[in-house]
UniProtKB/TrEMBL annotation, chain A:
Protein location: Cell membrane
Topology of this chain in the membrane: Multi-pass membrane protein
Pfam families from the UniProt entry: ABC2_membrane_2 (PF12679)
Keywords of this entry: Cell membrane, Membrane, Transmembrane, Transmembrane helix
Source organism: Tahibacter aquaticus
UniProt protein name: ABC-2 type transport system permease protein
GO molecular function, one term: ABC-type transporter activity
GO cellular component: plasma membrane
TM ranges: 12-41, 53-74, 95-119, 131-149, 161-182, 220-240
UniProtKB/TrEMBL annotation, chain B:
Name of this chain's protein: ABC-2 type transport system ATP-binding protein
InterPro entries xref list: AAA+_ATPase, ABC_transporter-like_ATP-bd, P-loop_NTPase
Species the sequence originates in: Tahibacter aquaticus
SMART domains: AAA
Stretches of the chain forming a coiled coil according to its record: none
Source species, domain of life: Bacteria
Family as reported in the entry's similarity comment: Belongs to the ABC transporter superfamily.
Domain ABC transporter, residue spans: 7-236
Transmembrane regions: none
Keywords: ATP-binding, Nucleotide-binding, Transport
Record GO terms (molecular function): ATP binding; ATP hydrolysis activity
Upper taxonomic lineage: Bacteria, Pseudomonadati, Pseudomonadota, Gammaproteobacteria, Lysobacterales
Signal peptide stretch: none
Gene3D superfamilies: P-loop containing nucleotide triphosphate hydrolases
């Protein structure tokens, strides 16, 4: 069996070895529901779509995904198992990728468990299911980007709280870069090209683009690059910090 | 190209900024040898082992495991090696069998062979009684044994064990040493320890490391021969004064020391002289009663101190 698959399976199983995983999933589902129904006005809008559901995902992930990401490497370093893992016949890349994919799959499971809301909206009306599938894809990609950032910062410290806070801060900045508030601020300082570049870096901009139902290759490349770059950085940081 | 059957390091060096943790260490270990790494805490033993195991990259120099360079052929080198990291880390939430299955899978074992190897190490390290518990809940001794099981699972030609008996009770220490001895005849084994009795119990050769430098490389007997106690004779006499006077007649005795606690007499020979027979003859002819008479082979702890202390002073200066 490929070592990536082996490590992936062990990691994913380890999430469910403690009640924490179940608590996480319950909190995620409760918050996703509450935001959709209370703040999104799911019923009041009278429209058969899941926009009020997906629109809050960036903010939901902002706190929940770093909580998953923070333990990825910090835990391995604290318990010393990083030494065990990296002296098995497995490359650094395989280890980084396997652990990331396991965390991503876990978030994916939590996201998939929101399926009743999809059933609900189909029961109440006739939504555009293509848009909903695209939104789920966008949401999953955004979670992946958050996790890749979390993976890198988790590798930088053995303190999980520090890893959590740093990840929240960076994810927050990357979200806010696409908001009119931030855009307006930069518009007075920088040429339009630079402002567009900052907006182009924003996770939020690309998420919203996909969530509208338009799966543009550029948005996919953006997420793939973001995940790739942060995972690459993870491997570098692990190498640098191994001796500590 | 290095020898295919050895662990070999050449000028292995690790620096952290200005600090040199390991300073140009070279040695070779062959199958059938059990090499003991001796040295005070912080001497660079673990860092050296981490570099051979492929966890840390050397700043300079190289290490080869069974002919594979740990930097340019890391996967092959890691396949040939079983490694017990310091503190025997393992995934605490797993049960021992699941953990061993994980390691077996990563090492590419499958089917009958995997099951056979896992059953074999579980038997060898007597893990049967704890198979139902997660590793987190195990005692220190059992955790260490799970770590050892993981290291020998793929029956590697080379083994590196960082403090394999640390934290074990005397019975468990004995078992682990017996296990190492049983594996020793066809494997390359490197262990680190700061327990000197362990050198006698398992090692065929010992290197002393302090301040990152290799200060001695010898068999345990050769190391003992460096001791000033080597060839000395100790005895406990019923009448200490009379015994002392009798010993004054032996020409080859350089000096005599008497332990103030138990009045045990130790006579040191002049360089290269044997004094056991002359002493026993004198005691017989003078009719001096002794309750104990012993030829000293040398004291490792004293040799260890004399080798490592100048270094330690240098390092702290």
């Amino acid at each position: 069996m490929n070592p990536v698959v082996t490590v992936f399976r062990r990691e994913l199983a380890s999430y469910f070895a403690t009640p924490v995983a179940y608590v996480f999933i319950v909190i995620f589902l409760l918050l996703a529901g509450a935001l959709t129904f209370y703040y999104g006005g799911f019923f009041e809008r009278g429209q058969a779509d899941l926009q009020p559901f997906f629109i809050y995902h960036p903010w939901l992930y902002l706190f929940l995904v770093p909580a998953i990401g923070m333990r990825l490497w910090a835990e391995e370093r604290k318990s010393g198992t990083i030494e065990l893992l990296l002296t098995l016949p497995i490359t650094m890349w395989q280890a980084v990728l396997a652990k990331f994919l396991a965390a991503w799959a876990f978030v994916g499971i939590a996201l998939a468990l929101t399926f009743p809301i999809w059933i609900t909206v189909n029961y109440l009306g006739e939504p555009d299911n293509g848009v909903i599938v695209a939104s789920y894809l966008g949401s999953l990609l955004m979670a992946g980007a958050f996790l890749a950032i979390g993976s890198c910062l988790s590798a930088a410290t053995r303190n999980q709280v520090v890893a959590f806070i740093l990840t929240v801060v960076i994810c927050f900045l990357l979200l806010m870069a696409g908001f009119p508030l931030v855009q307006g601020f930069f518009q007075s300082l920088l040429p339009q090209g630079a402002v567009d570049a900052i907006a182009g870096l924003s996770l939020y901009t690309h998420f919203i683009a996909i969530a509208k139902g338009v799966v543009d290759l550029r948005d996919l490349i953006y997420f793939a690059l973001t995940i790739g770059v942060w995972l690459y950085a993870t491997a570098i940081v692990i190498d640098l910090k191994k001796a500590d | 190209m290095g020898d295919l059957t050895m662990i070999e390091t050449s000028q292995l060096t690790k620096r952290y900024g200005q600090f040199t943790a390991v300073d140009g260490i070279s040695f070779k270990v062959q199958p059938g040898e059990v090499l003991g790494f001796l040295g005070p805490n912080g001497a660079g033993k673990s860092t050296t082992m981490k570099m051979i195991a492929g966890f840390l990259a050397p700043t300079a120099g190289s290490a080869k495991v069974c002919g594979f360079d740990v930097e340019s052929q890391p996967i092959q080198a890691k396949r040939a090696l079983g490694y017990l990291p310091e503190g025997a880390p393992s995934y605490g939430e797993m049960k021992p069998r699941a953990f061993l299955e994980f390691v077996a899978d990563v090492r590419g074992m499958s089917g009958e062979q995997k099951k056979k190897r896992i059953d074999d190490v579980i038997g060898r390290l007597q893990l049967e009684s704890v198979l139902a518990q997660s590793i987190d809940t195990l005692s220190k001794g059992f955790k260490r044994r799970v770590g050892l099981a993981q290291a020998i699972l793929h029956d590697p030609p080379a083994l590196i064990l960082d403090e394999p008996t640390d934290g074990l009770d005397p019975n468990q220490k004995h078992e682990v040493r017996a296990l190492i001895n049983a594996m020793a005849h066809d494997k390359i084994i490197v262990i680190s320890t700061h327990i000197l009795e362990e050198v006698h119990a398992v090692c065929t050769r010992a290197v002393v490391i302090a301040g990152g430098k290799l200060l001695a490389d010898a068999t345990p007997a050769e190391l003992e021969a460096r001791s000033r106690y080597h060839g000395a004779v100790s005895l406990t006499a019923v009448n200490t004064g009379a015994a002392r006077q009798a010993l004054a007649r032996v020409a080859d005795i350089e000096s005599i020391e008497i332990d103030p606690q138990d009045h045990r007499i130790t006579a040191f020979p002049k360089k290269g002289r044997a004094i056991f027979m002359p002493i026993s003859d004198v005691l017989k002819s003078q009719n001096i009663e002794v309750s104990e008479l012993q030829l000293e082979s040398g004291r490792l702890d004293e040799v260890f101190r004399s080798i490592t202390l100048p270094e330690a002073k240098e390092a702290s200066a």
